TrEMBL record, chains A, B:
This is 1,3-propanediol dehydrogenase. Gene3D superfamilies: 3.40.50.1970, Dehydroquinate synthase-like - alpha domain (1.20.1090.10). The keyword DNA damage does not apply. Residues 187-384 form the Fe-containing alcohol dehydrogenase-like C-terminal domain.
Amino acid sequence: MGINKFVMPEVIFGNGSISQIGESCLRLGAKKVFIVSDPNVIQTNWYNEITKSIEQAGLHYVNYNELTINPKDFEVEKGTQSYLENECDAVIGVGGGSTIDVAKGIAILSTNEGTIQSFEGIDKITTPLPPQIMIPTTAGSGSEVSQFTILVDSTRKIKMTIVSKSLVPDIAIIDPSVLSTKDAQLTASTGLDVLTHAIEAFVSVASTPLTDVHAQNAISLVADYLRPSVASKLNIEAKTKMAMASLQAGLAFSNAILGAVHAMSHAVGGRFDMLHGEVNAVLLPYVMEYNLLACPDKFAHIAQLLGEDIQGLTSIEAGRTAVAFVRDLSIDIGAPQRLSDMGLKEDLEAYIPELSQVALNDACMITNPRDIFLKDVDSLFRQAL
Amino acid sequence: MGINKFVMPEVIFGNGSISQIGESCLRLGAKKVFIVSDPNVIQTNWYNEITKSIEQAGLHYVNYNELTINPKDFEVEKGTQSYLENECDAVIGVGGGSTIDVAKGIAILSTNEGTIQSFEGIDKITTPLPPQIMIPTTAGSGSEVSQFTILVDSTRKIKMTIVSKSLVPDIAIIDPSVLSTKDAQLTASTGLDVLTHAIEAFVSVASTPLTDVHAQNAISLVADYLRPSVASKLNIEAKTKMAMASLQAGLAFSNAILGAVHAMSHAVGGRFDMLHGEVNAVLLPYVMEYNLLACPDKFAHIAQLLGEDIQGLTSIEAGRTAVAFVRDLSIDIGAPQRLSDMGLKEDLEAYIPELSQVALNDACMITNPRDIFLKDVDSLFRQAL
């Protein structure tokens, strides 16, 4: 084992924890905070609680919520303009992964010169960022604890990956009670995103004992609690467990990075405005089958964590039960099974050569456990079509 | 479950990771660092590597190593004077728990007015501290990741507990290869300290799902690797696993706090200069027996983590096998079995009423899972005598 690093923000976790936002802003020295959210979020009761807590702490705030389902460069630029015009001094993201990623992008441009494109890659941010507090509302992206932001370059139509320790927020406030406003489709897709994070981090070539601990826990929690969480908005135990799964999967992948599912999903999501979690859900079992050859023992371990009885099976056989489990889970919770099921108007097949090339160059491909070439990515896309 | 918080430093883990110290200091903006260590540490080869890495980064350093086996108030005061006279701007602790606790104390007094006594308790530190990097050399205390420093008040002869998020270091560098310079006695006592941290954090009334994950892992690792780590200085796999156990036990107790073992051990360690890990090792099985009543299921789970076959046993019966495991482990690795075996010149029995009162007032007693009164502490001390 070489040298490995692990970073995470301060985490405040539990039902009612959004009430800590005012005090948290104060603790970080904020006076006027910039809240990034989306049009649905600002209509909820708990969003009011957040702004009330901020006001009660004697702070001012500005809201910015002109966001779409994937986080775009121009949304970051427009937000930064507003942040600077309003002379804010801290960034708060309240929403799903896209919202948090836009909030991080605004944090970058608020103190660093240049376009958001100039920070693509690893460790390109040189000037310290303002305090960042993230409040995830989907139990999915893990962005609230990660050193990543994934933003769409709307000209090139690709998702850019920006990695830096300064993107690890100062505080992540994870309140499972806000998850009860999600519908079943969003609960399903974000839940499968969590599973994808955990599995890709666990088999990543950059995994470490510390990331494994979190990946393993996340896998078990998804196996036990994703179905009941999709089944009922009111099952707060299942929501709490899925929020914990999302947190731990986020800690795992932030430090172990991901693999081919995310590389391919970023390519698709950069080109078309599709739900990230759903694209991952379709691709995951195909990529698991492909990667099985590289680390059968790890996939056998995943099968155990998912609750499969693997006694008497070889590692390869046990690993295949993990793939089958993921397929069954995905069907049970009504996730799409093929990329062509997702209501896209364009002919996806015609884009496969281009998407495959983009995926191959994605930063997440570097840590995929099995060597992968253009023809392999192409073949995986065709299988999932 | 209420609202709970979890904080940890950036962790750099792995053989050879001490080479990262220079770059780490630079990253935190340090120019002249104050290194706290002890007379044994400065004679090792790897200490030279640390100072070389700092010099190669173009930084200056000052060394302070006039420390004893428990961290004392006057050692903090003297160190602070040197820190200020030399106009240092960052604190590095290289050593066991005592060294790291003194380094944290110096960090407090370097920017805050008042005696070290005035910061005793929770959240008394108001001014931000200088950057802190800790390099543990004993795989025991967990102080490199915790929000605690435990310092002896040499006048009152008690151990003061200081708790603050600002005591969580910025970076913890954990290099298992430095552990091979420890002798068997120190490996045994610090290893049992790790087990005590993990068990007390797991049964603490302030435990959370995130602290449980780390506590559980630490317990399993100690069960598997403490014996071989004591048996051979050269077993680097065992040292690496024990370093990981120490780290995870530290993450658990930093956020879940501890219990009666530590409360009592602090009382003893404040009065007499005894090895903290050894005092814990003696007290642990007695306190486990006492606490079993409060949470038999948790103790049954501990038994499982220790590798006991608990099938067909009630929780209480299973919990008792955990106590027996700890006793056997402690005997196997040659740890003292009674407080009177530890070479103390004074008549410990005469001090029991006083020690019991001090232990009852210790901050760690608050999170003990079973209600505890003066007569109970007195009785536990007498059992362990």
